[in-house]
Amino acid sequence: MHELTYAVIALALSFDFVNGFHDAANAIATIVATKVLSPVHAVAMSALGNLSGMVFGTIFGVHIANTIGKGILNTTDINGMTGVYLIFAVLVGAIAWDLITWIFGLPTSSSHALVGGLMGAGLAMAGTGAILGPAPEALKMFIIYTLVGGGIGALLNAALDRVGEGKPHPKRALIWGFAGGWVISAAIAGWYYDKQLNGLAISVIFMVVSPLVGLGMAFIITSLVIRLCRHRKATKVNWYFRKLQLVSSFFYSIMHGTSDAQKVIGIVTITLVFDGTLKDFTVQYWTIVACFGAISLGTFFGGWKIVKTMASKITRLLPYQGFSAETGGGLVLMTNAIFGIPVSTTHVISSAIIGVGATRRLSAVRWGVARNVIWAWIITIPAAAIISYIAFGIIRMAGLV
């Protein structure tokens, strides 16, 4: 193994640590906000959950690692140490963007920072030919299915609006119905065509879809809980959900570790392929242990500035709402992990919290804070791509590749 490879693997594990540090809020924000656990106990439980994600990944397979390592860059034309330097530039961009957003307390996506880094470094190395595009037929079918789904959703919602109580609002019903139908059909079509669409396209699609699915899931779960518990005393409901939230928070932590650690497993494995240590992309057991261990340590040391944003600035939470957000978000992450789709745990839980707050009334959500979070999501991939592009350019100017 080359000396540079050791350095890149160390940097990848550092990114994994920073990812856990940066994303600690994802799993513990709601449980801290509802005062079910103290921050120290919440972080310890979340770190254990992250480590337990290794079991889930072993049972269902490391599909996300395969997507990151084989589904974004065209690795067939990358030779030897050039590839190792490329991964170095990728990690520089992803870590730099993670740290920038951490300084400002924004819950942005480490996952999309990594995807952006791969895209930027790949473009700097070989132009657009380095990026694996979606299969045209799969992309065409995806667009058709989403438009049809949106149309069906618009018609159904318009019909419900006409027969419902109160004054009909046909234009609003059509818009919201189309949006709902589009999201549902996009998620189903994306899961079905994930392999043909390839890693970059599917990451961009689910950058939009997964937060909206998370929002919808949390909204539905919260609404069901409210309906089922409407005749019970609030103090008793909160007592039960304080206990249940321990389960939902641990479940979300497992899914967080499963989703995010696998991305670094993919990076480490492809680095070993470029170095020549591995003949093909085969995940080694030691990389699984190392990556899950690194993200768990990062989570344990936590990122309290982001916890503050996630736990209190977006909306105020009660235990049943924290349970709903974590359960909805965890189910979204679990489904995407099974299909091997790298999504943002930050996007999902942030949107789930927004969905929970919206069940009370739209004004319960602090939309100014939510808007800042959304802007951070949008610029993550291009920002990390620019930094990685510059980093690889500097490496080339130095004559290293």
Characterise the protein shown here:
The protein is an all-alpha fold and 401 residues long. It has one domain (3-397). The chain has helices spanning 3-33, 39-60, 63-70, 80-103, 110-126, 136-163, 170-192, 194-228, 234-275, 285-301, 304-313, 319-339, 345-358, 367-397. Helix 1 crosses helix 2 (39-60), helix 7 packs across helix 8 and helix 12 runs antiparallel to helix 13. The longest helix is centred in the middle third of the chain and has 42 residues, at 234-275. The model has no long low-confidence stretch (mean pLDDT 84).
Secondary structure blueprint with pairings:
Elements: H1 3-33, H2 39-60, H3 63-70, H4 80-103, H5 110-126, H6 136-163, H7 170-192, H8 194-228, H9 234-275, H10 285-301, H11 304-313, H12 319-339, H13 345-358, H14 367-397
Helix pairs in contact: 1-2, 1-4, 1-9, 1-10, 1-11, 1-12, 1-13, 2-9, 2-10, 3-9, 4-5, 4-9, 4-14, 5-14, 6-7, 7-8, 8-12, 8-13, 9-10, 9-12, 12-13
